[in-house]
Design a protein that fits this description.
- By secondary structure, the protein is of the alpha+beta class.
- The chain folds into 2 domains: 1-30; 37-224, no CATH class.
- The protein has 8 helices and 8 strands, in the order H-E-E-E-E-E-E-H-E-E-H-H-H-H-H-H.
- The strands form 2 sheets. It has a 6-stranded antiparallel β-sheet with strand order 1-2-3-4-5-6, with no helix packed on it. It has a two-stranded antiparallel sheet with strand order 7-8.
- A hairpin with a 7-residue loop joins strand 2 (55-56) and strand 3 (64-67).
- The N and C termini lie far apart (70 Å).
C-alpha cells in the first residue's frame, strides 16, 4: 500500500512539473525578442534636447535610446530594455516615461544640425564615456546647463509648457500601426510582472537589483520635473 501511494505521489509531481514547464514555454513564445543589431563597435550617442538626459543612437534606422542606466529599444510596437547595447534584451510591458519627451523630428534636426531654427552643435558621446558618467550627468543636469544641449541661442520651454506636446506625442504613438496591432495583447499583460526569458533567469538576483535602480531613476526624473 505504501509503495502504491508513493508511486501515485511521484506521478502527480511529474505531471505537474510537465504542465508548468509547458506553460512557461508558451509565455516566452508569446513575447518574442527583437532581432540583434550588429554594431562594428559600441555605438556613439547624442543627448536629445528638451529631455532629462535621454540619449539617442543616431547611426541606425531603428528607435534605440539610453536612459537611466538602460538601453531601450522599440520593436514591432513593443518596448525592450537591456544594460547592454547588443544583447540581454527583456520585454518591458509599458511605454518608458522618457519617450514622449523626445521630439519625433530629432533625426531631421540631427542631419541638419539645426534644432527648431537654432544651430545645434551636438556632441557625439562614446558608449564607454556614457556608462561612466550618465548618472552624474543626470543628477546635475549637465547637458541642459552646459549650453542648452549644444543648441545655440536657444531658450528651452518651461517644463509646464512641455506637457501639451507630450500629450500629443502620446496620442500619435498610440495611432502607430505597429503599436495598434499589439495594443490588445499588451493590455492583457497590464500590471503583470516583466517576463523573464530563460537565459535571464540565471541572473534573477541581478535583475531585481536593476529593477530597483530603474525605479530610482524614475524618481530622479520626477524630482527633475
Amino acid at each position: 500500500m505504501r509503495k502504491v501511494l508513493l508511486g501515485t505521489i511521484l506521478m502527480a509531481l511529474t505531471l505537474g512539473a510537465s504542465v508548468s514547464a509547458k506553460a512557461g514555454v508558451d509565455i516566452n513564445i508569446s513575447i518574442p525578442l527583437p532581432p540583434p543589431i550588429v554594431f562594428p563597435s559600441p555605438p556613439d550617442v547624442i543627448v536629445v534636447p528638451d529631455t532629462n538626459s535621454v540619449y539617442a543612437v543616431p547611426d541606425i534606422d531603428v528607435d534605440m535610446y539610453f536612459w537611466n542606466g538602460w538601453w531601450w529599444r522599440l520593436w514591432e510596437g513593443r518596448w525592450y530594455r537591456s544594460h547592454y547595447h547588443n544583447r540581454g534584451w527583456g520585454y518591458y510591458n509599458s511605454v518608458p516615461r522618457f519617450y514622449h519627451d523626445v521630439d519625433p523630428g530629432w533625426r531631421g534636426y540631427y542631419r541638419d544640425r539645426n534644432w527648431r531654427g537654432h544651430r545645434w552643435d551636438y556632441q557625439r558621446v562614446p558608449s564607454r564615456q556614457l556608462h561612466q558618467n550618465w548618472k552624474g550627468w543626470r543628477d546635475n543636469r549637465h547637458w541642459e546647463r552646459r549650453g542648452n544641449w549644444g543648441v545655440q541661442n536657444y531658450q528651452p520651454q518651461a517644463r509646464q509648457l512641455r506637457q501639451e506636446p507630450r500629450h500629443q506625442r502620446q496620442e500619435q504613438f498610440q495611432q502607430r500601426p505597429d503599436v495598434h496591432r499589439y495594443q490588445q495583447p499588451s493590455q492583457e499583460h497590464h500590471n503583470q510582472p516583466q517576463i523573464q526569458q530563460p537565459q535571464q533567469q540565471r541572473h534573477q538576483g541581478e535583475s531585481q537589483h536593476q529593477h530597483s535602480e530603474g525605479r530610482h531613476g524614475d524618481r530622479g526624473e520626477e524630482h527633475g520635473r
